[in-house]
Amino acid sequence: MLGEWAQAVEGQERVEAVVPDAADLPDVLLDLGVAHEDINELVALRPRVTDDPETPALLERCVGAVVRDMGTVGGSPRFPAPPDGADLLGRCFSVYVYVAALPYTRAYHRGLGVPDDVSRRTLADLGRHMAVHRRRYGRCGIHAVSWLGLHFHGELYQLGRLQYQRAGLGGRCGEGVAAAGVPLKTGDLCLSLHIPDFRGPLSPEACDRSLLLAEEFFARHYPAERYEIAVCHSWLLDAQLRRYLRADSNLVRFQERFRTAWENREPDDRVPVGFVFGDPDLPVETLPRRTSVERAVGDHLRAGGHWYGGHGWFPLPWSGTPAGGPLVDGA
Fold first, then answer.
1. For residues 164 and 221, is the Cβ–Cβ distance under 8 A?
2. At residue 326, does pLDDT exceed 70?
3. I need a labelling partner for 63 at 20 to 30 A (CA). Which of 133, 249, 268, 273 fits?
4. Is 259 left (phi over 0), alpha (psi -120 to 50) or beta?
5. Contact present, 61 and 14 (Cβ < 8 Å)
6. Sign (positive or negative) of CA dihedral 67, 70, 71, 76
7. Residue 175: φ, ψ to 5°
């Protein structure tokens, strides 16, 4: 069941990987935002991770992949997602990897002077993704395994409503920004914004506050890194949303912050269905219409339309970088 994990970390240096004992593990899991209903299953699973003849060595290599070159942009590991039908160990082995990596991550954060509350809220995204998994599959597990590597490798931080990933500017996005007259090129540093679920409204006030927190955070803890623009790759930037939502809605106001970097012409309806309704495989005709966003996503699909990932950018308020370029189409 863990064969793909072994392949992913083949040749990786082993590091000490300590799993808290059964008495201490629940508190660690709670600090990582894990729901109470998942705690007992994870504690009961512990002996399969610690006592199996081969699993501890695999765990040490996986933790080594997480902590290698800690904080280096682009250095987080690429772990496999659990296959369909995986047992509890297959669905939750990543939890133990990140629990065992936690002391290394917290030491890295402390070395930078990252406040404990920022560290705790950032790493609690592990529990949020377990909630996302349970909402979709109805059982304990994590599906977005590699995504959490960004958090535990020191590349991503939760600052108020938004998450900020220290990233390099991608090729097509870099070309779009350069075409707008901004003196940046592919590979230059940027902050990639992510919009987590279960964090309340995406209001302009919450976003403004988050950006203020980001300005202070990156200036203090990464003073050698210069961030001039933010980028975002999300279906939430699909301009078609404005056909269904009020001009003063939170999502439309969020779109208005961005300039178009490049246009995606490949539809991806599964992403908005999964984000809004919890399961990307739900039949379109069954999608509920309880909120304006649910009505927008479902009604558009039922009318034969498709949703597309948007790719936008804007100059960070503190950078002094000129805006340049058009707003996201239609904004």
1. no
2. no
3. 133
4. beta
5. yes
6. negative
7. -65, -40
